[in-house]
């Protein structure tokens, strides 16, 4: 039975297949003449959970690992972390990976998305020196997952650049594309026999915009209006180099896929006015189009309106040339189509206005280039993270937009989740409400013909939430940070997710009797 054939049907009138007919007859016998069938996710839809190295591993300087930009930030500038904490130990997954895999089995996960710490396997960032203990750690984790049929989805770069590369300019240095390709080769060579889903970068906008302008991510550099664009172009080129490397040298024997994950929150125009519609479009172009268009659009290259806007502003500001030039024709051809799938991190909806909610932006800056106002609608329920509120049908709006814009690419939702406060109850009904709404929106998305193949919850377990420290918790499992063993216990949402994975439909009636998690037969 295909997904599309499962609908709310009336047994006596609707055209139904054999399975539906049997269900209907049973329902007629039990309840009368009408049955409301559940919409279901396809059997091969990949349900998983996601984490990243810096946020969970700890062991920041153990077994030969090199320093990365988050290690440097939290140790030299500790007051930027809201609760003055670090990721030095975090959930200590470096020592607890077997328990993490056990949790995956308890949940019945089909897949687990985690990231590799570049500096753990290449302590200096360069590929001349490989750290065997780092490689062994990831081999152990992958082997443990594969043993239990859990598909590894590996992110090569989730924000933790080796510090020695940052000392050389990091993503601002054009040589970054070479360093990254060398690192990607080490990853493919060592893990590609078992890993079939590779993600080159997690959330380019958070790397470039938040790291080089918005002062919200390491390396916290204030290079307003220039650094963000250099970073963006080098990142996209590095992605394309890794993709082509995989495609030509590894895919023929390893047979996997290589994509990129972009933060695609939904930016919605405040009104239907032409000005607000353009404001929302410029926001989308600056936040994710700048990374997605060169790879996924039919024409390639950077988004037109953004290019024009930055050129105009640069001229007004007396720059001899634009601060954002397009890729050249050779680069465009190299980048266009360089992805087997589009990874989407989706959390929320933000409203965008051409005139309202504006702040004073630095000049020059990307914020000033775009020059729009934005806000989170008051009526949307708020989480423990200020940027994350719950918006109606948000996934549907974002993903149907991608379908139209990029000719229906294969999509995995690689992150989606809800933040609660550290001391809140394990009975996390607000998270369950958020998740059920997200899953409902995914079913709408599938109904609309979007080529959506899987979904990863953020996160498997509580972890270090970057500058927000350990204040917000996003895990299906709570981590006890007072306990040196970093004990993990399931929240109620873990049982609800387990029920979804097993049954493939959203059961609003399901209420777990208690919070005990067990490993079911076959896992
Ligand atoms: C230039 C135009 C104006 C820009 C205005 C600033 C941007 C405003 C819009 C903000 C949009 C919402 C911010 C969303 C951010 C998330 O996508 C991002 N934080 C998610 O990152 C992942 O979050 C997880 C949970 O927080 C986890 O930390 C993970 O590591 C991240 O990948």
TrEMBL record:
Entry GO MF terms: beta-glucosidase activity; galactosylceramidase activity
SUPFAM superfamilies, per the entry: (Trans)glycosidases (SSF51445)
Keywords in alphabetical order: Glycosidase, Hydrolase
Classification via Pfam families: Glyco_hydro_1 (PF00232)
Gene3D superfamilies associated with the record: Glycosidases
Catalytic activity: Hydrolysis of terminal, non-reducing beta-D-glucosyl residues with release of beta-D-glucose; beta-D-galactosyl-(1<->1')-N-octadecanoylsphing-4-enine + H2O = N-octadecanoylsphing-4-enine + D-galactose; a beta-D-xylosyl-(1<->1')-N-acylsphing-4-enine + cholesterol = cholesteryl 3-beta-D-xyloside + an N-acylsphing-4-enine; a beta-D-galactosyl-(1<->1')-N-acylsphing-4-enine + H2O = an N-acylsphing-4-enine + D-galactose
Any one biological process term the GO annotation gives: carbohydrate catabolic process
Top-level EC class: hydrolase
Enzyme Commission (EC) number: 3.2.1.21, 3.2.1.46
Top-rank taxon, per record: Eukaryota
UniProt similarity note: Belongs to the glycosyl hydrolase 1 family. Klotho subfamily.
Protein name: Cytosolic beta-glucosidase
Organism from which the protein derives: Spodoptera littoralis (Egyptian cotton leafworm)
Lineage: Eukaryota, Metazoa, Ecdysozoa, Arthropoda, Hexapoda
């Amino acid at each position: 039975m295909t997904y599309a054939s499962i609908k709310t049907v009336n047994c006596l009138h609707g055209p139904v297949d054999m399975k539906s007919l049997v269900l209907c007859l049973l329902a007629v016998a039990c309840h009368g003449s009408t049955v409301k069938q559940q919409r279901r996710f396809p059997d091969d839809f990949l349900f998983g959970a996601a984490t990243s190295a810096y946020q969970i591993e700890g062991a920041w300087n153990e077994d030969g690992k090199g320093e990365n930009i988050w290690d440097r930030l939290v140790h030299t500038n500790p007051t930027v972390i809201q609760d003055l904490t670090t990721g030095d130990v975090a959930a200590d997954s470096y020592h607890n990976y077997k328990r993490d895999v056990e949790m995956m089995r308890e949940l019945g996960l089909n897949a687990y998305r985690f990231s590799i710490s570049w500096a753990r396997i290449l302590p200096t960032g360069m590929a001349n020196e490989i750290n065997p203990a780092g490689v062994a750690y990831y081999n152990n984790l992958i082997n443990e997952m594969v043993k239990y049929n859990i598909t590894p989805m590996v992110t090569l770069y989730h924000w933790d650049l080796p510090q020695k590369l940052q000392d050389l300019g990091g993503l601002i240095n054009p040589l970054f594309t070479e360093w990254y390709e060398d690192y990607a080769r080490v990853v493919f060579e060592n893990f590609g026999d078992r890993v079939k889903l590779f993600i080159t970068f997690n959330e380019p906008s958070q790397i470039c915009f938040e790291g080089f302008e918005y002062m919200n991510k390491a390396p916290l550099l204030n290079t307003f209006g220039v650094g963000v664009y250099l970073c963006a172009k080098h990142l996209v080129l590095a992605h394309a180099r890794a993709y082509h490397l995989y495609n030509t040298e590894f895919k023929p024997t390893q047979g996997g896929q290589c994509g990129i994950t972009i933060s695609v929150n939904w930016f919605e125009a405040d009104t239907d006015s032409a000005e607000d519609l353009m404001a929302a479009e410029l926001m989308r172009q600056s936040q994710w189009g700048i990374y997605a268009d060169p790879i996924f659009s039919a024409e390639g290259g950077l988004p037109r309106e953004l290019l024009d806007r930055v050129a105009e502003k640069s001229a007004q500001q007396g720059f001899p040339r634009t601060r954002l030039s397009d890729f050249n024709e050779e680069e465009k051809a190299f980048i266009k189509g360089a992805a087997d799938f589009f990874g989407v991190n989706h959390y929320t909806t933000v409203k965008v206005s051409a005139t309202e909610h504006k702040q004073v932006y630095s000049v020059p800056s990307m914020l000033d280039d775009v020059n729009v106002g934005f806000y989170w609608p008051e009526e949307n329920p708020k989480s423990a993270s200020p940027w994350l509120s719950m918006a109606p049908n948000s996934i549907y709006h974002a993903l149907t937009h991608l379908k139209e814009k990029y000719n229906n690419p294969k999509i995995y939702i690689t992150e989606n989740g809800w933040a609660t406060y550290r001391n809140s109850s394990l009975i996390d009904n607000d998270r369950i409400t958020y998740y059920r709404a997200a899953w409902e929106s995914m079913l709408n998305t599938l109904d609309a013909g979007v080529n959506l193949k899987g979904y990863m919850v953020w996160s498997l377990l509580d972890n270090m939430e970057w500058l927000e420290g350990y204040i917000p918790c996003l895990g299906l499992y709570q981590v006890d940070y007072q306990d040196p063993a970093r004990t993990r216990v399931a929240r109620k949402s873990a049982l609800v997710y387990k029920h979804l994975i097993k049954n493939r439909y959203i059961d609003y009636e399901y209420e777990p009797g208690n919070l005990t998690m067990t490993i079911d037969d076959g896992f």
